[in-house]
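Weekend entry, working from home. Most of the wet-lab plans are on hold until the incubator is repaired, so I used the time to fold the two sequences that have been sitting in the queue since the last round of cloning. Logging both here for the record. First:
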Amino acid sequence: MKRITILGATGSIGTQTLDVVRRNSEDFEVVALTASENVQKMAELIQEFRPSYAVMRDHKKAEELRGAVPFSDCEILCGMDGFIRVSTLPRVEMVVAAMVGMIGLRPVMEAIRAGKDIALANKETLVTAGHIIMPMSKEYNVRILPIDSEHSAIFQCLNGEKKGQIETIYLTASGGPFRHCTREELKNVTVEQALAHPNWFMGPKITVDSATMINKGLEMIEAKWLFDVELDRIHVLVQPQSIIHSMVGFRDGAVMAQMGTPDMRLPIQYTLYYPDRNVLDGERLDFERIAELHFEKPRTETLRGIPLAVEACQAGGTMLTVMNAANEYAVAKFLHKDIGFLQIYDMIEFAMDHHQITSDPDLDTILAVEQETYEKLERDFHA
């Protein structure tokens, strides 16, 4: 039985991870769950999975949760100290890092120091601190196992292969709901339209990131760190059917692809059971019905997420934190209907243009630059 902590238990990835656990309860013990604000959902999860610990983001929400489960033996904690404690518990073997945002960075680092394998869904961990995380994982002999469907696909394609054999990584994208829209059409995009992803069910932030294509730029940076491959060997292809989740081209001309239905439980379960596979009920690909696979080149002149992320990665240092923080800030503003869709790109560009890079930043510098970016945008950016 594998004992796990789930950081971000009430979000999209956390919920689907618990669905996998629910279907395989004899194989997993949920030792700890964390959430930001959803007290009602956490109370339900405590009743069902009976974790030893639960963590809320602040003291007030922790008190509300204690009141919601008065007869539970679950120890309820709060704040960053709580997140770190449940990420480093001696009983825990794997930490599922599914928190959204930079708040997940410190708990992941402490989990690595404690020797825990990381099932990684938090993009910010590698985008802003890949230069810290990957050497740490080697130092502490910890496996970083990607949950994201594209990185899981690449990981599976590389299983048993040598890194030196890689010629090209093909990172596939659905293209989101606006892949054929003109710039004029994008000016009038609503929040509701941006959240209507054609293939995947995800949380609101990553769904908007998919619509802007910034998610694919972030995934390029993650792939660079996960697979130790230069950025110019990572190519994005739009595969609108979301059947091929990514591919690897090898130096002998062979190309290996991982295919499947757009169901996040597949990469989640693969990560939880790795190196084994287990039965997963659900839809199977019907190749006769599919008949054809379609590919497109991403339209980076209108959906500018990829070039902005590439520019940040090439600049390096704290520019990656600025790009990521500006995107988080801008997406939150868009979801609150304070800015338009295209202004997400404008905010990211503004923040990057006004930043002086610090090379090889440590964690404190990364977190300070994140806060400075939020403050600068709040103070100086005018829509």
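Second, folded right after the first finished:
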Amino acid sequence: MRFLDIPGMKIAVKGCNSAEYMYDTAYIFVCLRISPFMRVLNIMLAQVRGGVETMSLRYHEAMTAAGIDVISLGHSDGVLAHHLPPARFRPVNALVNHDPFAAWTLRRIAREFRPDIVLTHGNRATGIALLPFLGTAEKTVQVVHNFRHKGQLSRLHAAICVSESVHDSVKAAHPDMPLFTVANFGPLNERPVKPAPEGTPVLGTLGRLHVNKGIDVMVRAMALLKAQGIKAVLKIAGDGPELPRLTRLIIDEGVSDRVQFAGWIDEPADYLHGLDLFVLPSRVEPFGLVVAESMAAGVPVVATDIDGPKEILQHGALGQLCAAEDPEALAAAIALALADWKTTLAKARAAQVYALSQFSLEAGQTRLVDTLQQIAQKHLSP
């Protein structure tokens, strides 16, 4: 709801389409045309770097490009703080769930900004936004990025899911909640599809070094490929709590000559284009935007046959799939992709077309804005 203040009157304006309002006093007509307008608070409170944190930034960028008035709230040393201009960002450091200081900061900002929607990324952000004294509960919509959603979702009027598998998970727990699916998206960089390698194939994987990402499975698969006499090197891009354990595992498996760490990479396009094959060995992957980024970069993909990657790769039509948590299956899938480059590259070409049409920033912006308009009109209090 918006109010237009004119001396002696106040006009309430509601709705997304343009409207005309006329005021007649002393034979003077005032005609106003109101354009579509929306204000959104975009909240991601985590300090770590990862896919969810990156997507909170992508949401801000997409909404801004669509003309939505957006302010993002996040940790003072988080992804949003490092990439957004000060005028569009407010620091909020939540040390615990329902942090009282973070709550009062959100309350003050919400009263000043008067958002139409409070968009939260992560359970901590949602828990704070739903606190009753803040006045934001009726406008809160959570973007559900994974399967670790909590019972507090039942207090929302709507939620956005990043994949069909996440949608199904939330629907099973909250069957009456209005749910929308907006597949993750990003500024994809199109590159020519890579030809078959002339030398030793370069494999790569990228993501936060967390147990869910299955990098340990990938290291063991590299040891199996070495034992089979299949040449390949692996570049691991990312950082996280699994780094010490993975470093020891690489030594224990005898693949120090084949596996190297590339560190955290903010802009993955050049890294991906330097690979001959991208491998996603995840145990859990609600979406997996890096798969779409690899497809757009013209790099063939091998991934585990789970949730998000399976959706993105169209159940194996656009890349090689294998069982999760299985080094032998992963090694076999990699060996097959390396042995049959004609089929591997044919899938890569089709995958590139699909990724650019479905997961680009432009495609995501359209889906997101349409979804936000539906939610604001049908499911939130004015």
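Plan for Monday: verify the second prediction. Residues 39-185+361-378 form a domain with the Rossmann fold fold (CATH 3.40.50.2000).
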